[in-house]
């Protein structure tokens, strides 16, 4: 089964080296993509909490990137990557649970 939420989660990753980075635009894009992810699975409270964490980390990343402190930027980027990985694991779990539930209902 295709896990469409992976596409939206991937779109929440930092954009890399671009010159016209906007922290507000990045956070908004992350929020929208997280919303899509949550709508595509049967989100558990843990999913919602981790999505909130990713959004917080994205906000911190945007602020650090707009500043000129490379060590804070690197830490914020790493924290965002870790939060996204945790959310990915939970989304995978939610997706598998939904798939099992669908098979049970179909039987």
UniProtKB/TrEMBL annotation:
Source organism of this protein record: Rhizobium freirei PRF 81
Q: What is this protein called?
A: Uncharacterized protein
